[in-house]
């Protein structure tokens, strides 16, 4: 479709699309279904009534019916490009009873549960990168030409974890147009002391930079173990907000401009499948922030999105919530925010 055929999306979401094979312990398996961090982020943004424009690179054989499903749900797919090089877009994860993820040896896990092994997973090996190149593009790295010109007229954007090169080029590209609010989730592979010198330039143009407590501590290894100190240092590089998601679901938010710190508890629900939960949080945060540019409201929106995501499997589970449930959870969580 041409740029002229589509309206400007409410926000641009950039990330990866995957063919997911999920074996949760507390809900039914979800096999050969659309997924990837971009799908969870897009569903979360839709949950709050927004229309996202998606940017990603996929295989030529990525199921066209899935892209049609994305469109049917209200996503703009003009930024989804076919890569010239093959991409292994399969993603497998299973969880033990304590919700610990395992990415290796899918044959063993299917056999253990006496489930037939999906033929699509034959010869599968995990593709989660353990390192980032500082200069080389991967087949699924985002190129400057992947972002439709019309998308630059949007007001906000979020960058899901991709790789270092994509994260290096995207902030300045996205903010070259009308995008004023830009959020980005850190990649495991560059939250490492060997990237210390590159981090300042990476986050300078970002409104909010999201990471886990594990990532923050690894990046600052030998420098600090105080998460609030880490947040303050990263914020001094340019971001208005630093968000740190802890393993127990707690959220830490640091505001550079207000010099304030807030602690948010996770919603107390019944977790079933944590796949995509951080991506759902991020897009919920962006959806909330766009409304009144209030970081507390944004964090609450993100936590509510995360609470829905973790209760089921697959990105489209987010869109099955009952009317009024979002508002009820917002009210509950808003009474538990603590300034520290």
- Largest β-sheet summary: 10 strands, mixed
Q: What is the subunit arrangement here?
A: single chain
**What fraction strand?**
15-25%
How many helix segments?
A: 10
Helix content: 25-40%
CATH superfamily: Ribokinase
Q: What is the CA-CA span between the terminal residues? A: 49 Å
Task: Write the element-wise H/E pattern from the N-terminal end onward.
Answer: EEEHEHEEEHEHEHEHHEEEHHHE
Mean pLDDT: 94
Task: Identify the CATH architecture.
Answer: 3-Layer(aba) Sandwich
| Assigned CATH class | Alpha Beta
By DSSP, the count of extended strands is: 14
What fold name stands as the CATH topology? UDP-N-acetylmuramoyl-L-alanine:D-glutamate ligase
Tally of distinct domains: 1
Silhouette: globular
CA radius of gyration: 19 Å
Strand numbers in spatial order across the main sheet: 5-4-1-8-9-10-11-12-13-14
Structural class: alpha/beta
Task: Walk me through the structure.
The chain has ten helices and 14 strands. By secondary structure, it is α/β, with parallel strands linked by helices. The strands form two sheets. The chain has a ten-stranded mixed sheet with strand order 5-4-1-8-9-10-11-12-13-14, with helices on both faces. The radius of gyration is 19 Å and the shape is globular. The termini are far apart. The model has no long low-confidence stretch (mean pLDDT 94).
């Amino acid at each position: 479709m041409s740029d002229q055929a589509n309206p400007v999306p409410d926000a641009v979401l950039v990330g990866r699309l995957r063919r997911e094979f999920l074996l949760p312990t507390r809900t039914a398996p979800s096999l050969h279904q659309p997924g990837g961090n971009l799908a969870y982020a897009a569903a979360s943004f839709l949950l709050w009534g927004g229309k996202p424009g998606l940017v990603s690179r996929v295989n030529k054989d990525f199921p066209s019916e899935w892209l049609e499903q994305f469109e049917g749900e209200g996503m703009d797919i003009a930024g989804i490009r076919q890569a010239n090089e093959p991409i292994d877009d399969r993603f497998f994860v299973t969880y033990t009873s304590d919700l610990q993820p395992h990415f290796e040896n899918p044959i063993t896990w299917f056999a253990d549960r006496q489930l037939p092994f999906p033929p699509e997973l034959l010869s599968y090996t995990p593709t989660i990168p353990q390192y980032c190149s500082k200069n080389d593009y991967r087949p699924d790295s985002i190129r400057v030409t992947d972002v439709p010109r019309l998308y630059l007229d949007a007001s906000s954007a979020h960058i899901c974890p991709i790789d270092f090169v994509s994260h290096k080029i995207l902030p300045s590209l996205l903010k070259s147009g009308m995008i004023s609010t830009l959020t980005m989730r850190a990649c495991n592979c560059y939250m490492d002391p060997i990237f210390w010198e590159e981090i300042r330039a990476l986050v300078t143009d970002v409104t909010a930079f999201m990471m886990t407590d594990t990532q923050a501590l690894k990046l600052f290894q030998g420098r600090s173990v105080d998460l609030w100190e880490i947040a303050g240092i990263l914020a001094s590089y340019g971001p208005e907000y630093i968000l740190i998601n802890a393993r127990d679901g707690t959220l830490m938010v640091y505001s550079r401009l207000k010099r304030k710190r807030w602690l948010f508890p996770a919603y107390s629900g019944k977790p079933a499948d944590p796949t995509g939960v951080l991506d759902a949080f991020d897009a919920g945060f962006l959806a909330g922030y766009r409304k009144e540019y209030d970081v507390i409201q944004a964090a609450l929106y993100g936590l509510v999105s995360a609470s829905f995501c973790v209760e089921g499997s697959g990105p489209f589970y987010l869109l099955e919530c009952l009317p009024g449930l979002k508002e009820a959870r917002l009210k509950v969580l808003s009474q538990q925010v603590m300034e520290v």
